[in-house]
Structures are given as structure tokens and as C-alpha cells.
């Protein structure tokens, strides 16, 4: 019995190590420029985001925050330059790159006639994650949405919708790269603080977060946070 328990502990520790090792990557921008509507938003931007880092992007409306995030995840092609994940450009193997990231836009991509539970399972599947209803319920519960899990999304508040989308970050086997556009929008103070704690915890395990926000955040004082003003 002791030998079996020791073996189980060994396998558990190996799993933790492998999960953390899979997050040890770097996201780089090399001479990236962005032009939208004939206006240059940023030019020849060089940036290296290492594992264990939260890139905090801020700037005025129209400064290019959302465009930069879309470039980082490959949804928008830069005017020039390229984005490197690990040791290759993200356009070399888009499927592999997208399997390692979660991108959440500033408007939750939810289906109004689906329940919160159905939406989370659907979002995970679209992102290449097959999860059980139990795992989805656990993620929703951790986001404070246990009572709303079986409610149709069109009956929920904007803050609850935002928390459903963000519940993807609480699913098992988290992806290493999180790219989040204004993730704190519509969140109450408690949900805001819970999300900040989750982001800090993610990068402490070797993950990377790139986010935009116009809010003042308590995590700004954390050593893992790097600021970028556009």
C-alpha cells in the first residue's frame, strides 16, 4: 500500500513538472508595425515577453491596444514585422500556436440561447479543449456562477456574461498563453480581485498573460507585471 501511494505521488509530481515545463516559452514581436484606416498606430515595435510575465497594455482609445492583442494571437496581420512564439513565427504552424493560447475579446463570445454551462463547454471545444460537464461546472463555481450554470445567457447581466467567458481560464490543464482584451470590464470588485489573483498565479507557474485595461489594478505592483503604454 505504501509503495502504491508513493508511486501515485511520483506520477502526480511528474505531471506538475511537465505542465509547468510546457509553459516555459517566450512571445516576441520583431519590428512590428500596425496601420489601421490609413493611420499608423505603432511602428517597429520590438518586445520580448518571457514566461512568468504579465504584459499590461494601456493607452488612449484608438491607440492600438486591441489591434496589438489581435496581432499577438494571429487574428490580425501586422503591416510589417512578425510575432515569434518559442522558436518560430506564429504563422508557420497556426494550429499548434492556437492550441497553446486562449484569446478573449472585449465582448464575450457567447450564444444567447445557450446556458452558461453549454457556452463554456462550447468555447472550450472551439479552443481545442474537450471537457466534461463536471469540469465546466467546477470552473463556473470557481467564478461564482454555480447558481447561474443552467440559466440561458440572454437572461444574465453583462458582468455574469464576462465571468462565463473568463471561466475558460479556470479549466483543467491551462494553456500557457492568455491574451485578454479588457478582461475587467463589467466585473464587480470581488470578481476583479479574483481575476487578478488568477492571472498572477498563472504566470507564477510559467504562463504568459498579455492584457489591455484602462483600470488601476492592485496587481500593477507585482514584480511579474510589465507595462506598455501605446
Structural class: alpha/beta
Number of H- or I-type helical stretches:
7
Order of adjacent strands in the largest pleated sheet: 6-7-8-3-9
CATH topology: Rossmann fold
What is the rounded distance between the termini?
A: 59 Å
Total individual domains? 1
Gyration radius, rounded: 18 Å
Biggest sheet: strands, sense, closure? 5 strands, parallel
pLDDT < 50 stretches? 10-19
If you average the pLDDT, what whole number results? 92
Coarse shape: globular
State the total count of DSSP E strands: 9
CATH architecture: 3-Layer(aba) Sandwich
CATH class (first level) name? Alpha Beta
**Succession of helices and strands:** HEEEHEEHEHHHEHEE
> Level of helix content?
25-40%
Strand content: 15-25%
CATH superfamily: P-loop containing nucleotide triphosphate hydrolases
Could you explain the architecture of this structure?
By secondary structure, this protein is of the alpha/beta class. It is built from seven helices and nine strands, in the order H-E-E-E-H-E-E-H-E-H-H-H-E-H-E-E. The termini are far apart. The model is unreliable at 10-19 (pLDDT under 50).
Concise synopsis of the structure shown:
Helix content is 34%, strand content 24%. The protein is an alpha/beta fold and 230 residues long.
Amino acid at each position: 500500500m505504501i509503495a502504491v501511494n508513493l508511486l501515485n505521488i511520483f506520477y502526480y509530481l511528474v505531471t506538475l513538472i511537465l505542465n509547468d515545463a510546457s509553459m516555459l516559452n517566450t512571445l516576441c514581436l520583431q519590428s512590428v508595425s500596425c496601420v489601421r484606416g490609413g493611420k499608423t498606430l505603432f511602428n517597429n515595435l520590438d518586445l520580448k515577453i518571457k514566461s512568468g510575465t504579465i504584459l499590461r497594455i494601456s493607452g488612449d482609445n484608438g491607440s492600438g491596444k486591441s489591434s496589438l492583442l489581435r496581432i499577438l494571437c494571429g487574428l490580425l496581420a501586422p503591416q510589417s514585422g512578425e510575432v515569434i512564439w518559442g522558436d518560430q513565427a506564429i504563422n508557420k504552424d497556426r494550429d499548434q500556436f492556437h492550441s497553446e493560447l486562449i484569446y478573449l475579446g472585449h465582448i464575450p463570445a457567447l450564444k444567447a440561447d445557450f446556458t452558461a454551462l453549454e457556452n463554456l463547454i462550447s468555447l472550450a471545444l472551439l479552443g481545442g479543449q474537450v471537457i466534461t460537464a463536471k469540469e465546466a461546472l467546477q470552473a463556473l463555481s470557481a467564478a461564482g456562477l454555480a447558481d447561474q450554470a443552467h440559466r440561458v445567457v440572454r437572461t444574465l447581466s453583462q458582468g455574469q456574461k464576462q465571468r462565463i467567458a473568463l471561466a475558460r481560464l479556470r479549466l483543467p490543464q491551462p494553456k500557457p498563453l492568455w491574451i485578454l482584451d479588457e478582461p475587467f470590464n463589467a466585473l464587480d470588485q470581488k470578481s476583479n480581485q479574483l481575476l487578478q489573483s488568477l492571472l498572477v498565479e498563472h504566470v507564477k507557474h510559467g504562463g504568459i498573460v498579455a492584457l489591455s485595461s484602462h483600470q488601476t489594478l492592485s496587481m500593477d505592483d507585482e514584480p511579474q507585471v510589465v507595462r506598455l503604454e501605446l
